[in-house]
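Aim 2 progress update. The chain analyzed this quarter is reproduced below.
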Amino acid sequence: FFLSPTMLVEAFFVALFLQLYASVLSDPCWQENQGNHQLADLRTNKTVLDFIAFGIEDESGFLELIQSILVLRPPESPGSAIVRDVIQTTLEPLGWLVEVDTFQTSSVIGEEVVFSNVVATQDPDKPRQLALACHYDSKTFPTGFLGATDSAVPCAIILNIATTLDRIIKMQEKESEISLQLIFFDGEEQLYENTMFGPDGLYGSKHMANKLTESSFTSNTGPWCQEGEATEMERIDLLVLLDLIGAPDPFFKNYIDEETGLCNPFSDELSEIEDAIAGEIPDDDKKYFHAYCWTVDDTMDDHTPFIEHGLRKALHVISDPFPEVWHTLDDDWEHLDLESSSRINRIFRLFVAEYLHLEI
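Predicted structure tokens:
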């Protein structure tokens, strides 16, 4: 039996196609990878830790972001539009997709109010998302309330993480299924005095959670596959919500994971990262993130509507007890602890690098 050169070439390509097809079929789809995802260990590599925590730090840019966001910014206000512009002008030049979702809804007393969530995604074609979130609105009362810890600093942290890690993420040789995403909620704060938080407040997160749950998702062509139907909500690996950050000596609890009964493993890692970074700073004995846990997270916040709509996992990072300046006119630039703010920024930058398995 004799095979011509043409037949040999055709047989080679058929065999190659079958091999590639079998490989695709045997690789887990993004949903299974999402369920099996583990953090990389970057904190024990001193060179990598120093580079991520300190080497790419942009302290002046971080402080400028805080000041740019620290304006009166209740829903529908000129300051709210200013902050949206800050987000867009920071991320769009880097090639991020920045989407503003403006919607009108009835407030708790029946008034029609317009809100605008902002969602920025580094690579919207990737099927999975690590979402960092904050609320960017400020309270309507007391008059003149700025909300430095609540939540200008948290929003500045996630923006700074995006700008400092952007180039490194794009330089990765191995294409990841996971995109970094930033969510800026509008309408977290109560609009009126003497109302119940929950019915009044969380307007942006309630709207977005409902929208994501009702929106179907099919992944684009790439080095990944999708098994069955999915929703936009199911794309979120983890929602990391930052709130009430920037006061002196914050205390961040490690909450019990209600599924396992154990401490939240992501909070465990934040504690380990903090210890590793503190080891690089002489005479640093501060401790903000704690490894022990004794209670579940029962604090209602922007992650709550997401959990109620089936979010896989949330990491709620909120100072507890709340800062002394909480909901007062003293929650301003003059009362911020910039050292603690920068420390938390470094910790989360390394956490994000570990979640994304960045290679340095």
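The two ends are 54 Å apart (CA to CA). Strands lie at 97-106, 112-121, 128-135, 178-185, 216-217, 230-231, 236-243, 314-318. These observations will guide the mutagenesis experiments scheduled for the next reporting period.
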